[in-house]
Specification:
DUF1059 domain-containing protein; globular; three-stranded antiparallel beta sheet; 2 helices; DUF1059; alpha+beta; 57 residues
């Protein structure tokens, strides 16, 4: 399982996105960023976010 913590992306937010693949995590994170934070995830931003995705322990 892959995870991305919203806080790691610089937001004061406790949300954690979990999915089986990096692509799914990025899609869910982009939706969260748009709806909750009003941020549109550009392709360049998505590349940077990939480094924040980790395997769940």
């Amino acid at each position: 399982m892959k995870t991305l913590h919203c806080r790691d992306a610089g937001f004061d937010c406790e949300a954690v996105v979990r999915a089986d693949t990096e692509e799914e995590v990025l899609a869910q994170a982009a939706e969260h960023a748009q709806h909750v934070h009003g941020v549109t995830v550009t392709p360049e931003l998505a590349i940077g976010m990939k480094s924040l995705i980790h395997d769940e322990a």
